[in-house]
Amino acid sequence: KTFTNITAAITITAQYTINSYKVSFVDYNGTELKAQNVNYGSAATAPTSPSRTGYTFSGWDKTFTNITSDLTIIAQYTQDAPVTTKYEAENAVGSNTNTVSLAGASNGKYVQMQDGSITFTVNASDGAGTYKINIVFSQTYADSKAQNIQVNGASAGSVTFVKTGSSVTFSSVEVVLSLNAGSNTIAITKSWGWVD
Predict the structure, then answer these.
(1) Which of 20, 64, 85, 127 is packed most tightly, with the most Cβ within 10 A?
(2) For the chain, how far is it from start to end, CA to CA, in angstroms?
(3) pLDDT tens-digit profile of 60-91?
(4) Cβ-count burial of 58 within 10 angstroms (0-12 exposed, 13-18 middle, 19+ buried)?
(5) SS (H, E, C) the chain
(6) Quick check: 46 and 26 in contact, CB under 8 A?
(7) pTM recorded for the entire structure
(8) Residue 52 and residue 28 in contact, taking contact as beta carbons nearer than 8 Å
(9) What is the pLDDT of residue 60?
(10) Is 16 helix (H, G, I), strand (E, B) or coil?
(11) Residues of the chain with pLDDT under 50
């Protein structure tokens, strides 16, 4: 109603338009997954749950059932347990090595590296990046022995194997290596002394 020329008693009722707010759903890296305008006090509608390699979607960082202002909602993830793949030396490519049967070894065998090398073909299924490699070994010859590590034919440093005892007992050492996505070769080559 207008009230510029009042000639009698009149009741004027205020009229309102509901406020609308922008709600944006974004992924962990800032990519917008969905944007929508939501009326004051209403709920936003989430997009389809996003995915991320190596992670499981766990929800959103804010509730969105009662929107009262512009809002950015970020996808949340929990990291998946690392995938562990076991590679046996007796199934690798050995050069000047000797495979020995031993009841206490995994698969009942172990490889004496002697003056040779052992080359494993491994798959970096999570893509290019750094991977923790756990090497199980026996070293009965001296306090410590250093051996060379090569990744895809290039030097990746060395690894030291400490003495595990006077008879064949096993220990482990961890190295961190940069791998390409997909298939890679990791070689342990003789530097100084024998390692099994």
Answers:
(1) 64
(2) 95
(3) 999 999 999 999 999 999 988 877 777 888 87
(4) exposed
(5) CCCCCCCCCCCCCCCCCCCEEEEEEECCCCCEEEEEEEECCCCCCCCCCCCECCEEEEEECCCCCCCCCCEEEEEEEEECCCCCCCCCHHHCEEECCEEEECCCCHHHEEEECCCCEEEEEEEECCCCEEEEEEEEECCCCCCEEEEEEEECCEEEEEEEEECCCCCCCCEEEEEEEEECCEEEEEEEECCCCCCC
(6) no
(7) 0.58
(8) yes
(9) 98
(10) coil
(11) none
Taking alpha carbons only, the member of 99, 157, 94, 83 closest to residue 121 is: 94
Q: Are 51 and 77 in contact (CB under 8 A)?
A: no
Q: How far apart are CA 194 and CA 145, in angstroms?
A: 7
Non-local CB neighbours of 41 within 8 Å, separated by 6+ positions: 66, 67, 68
Place of tokens 């510029």: 4
**How much is the pLDDT for 194?**
66
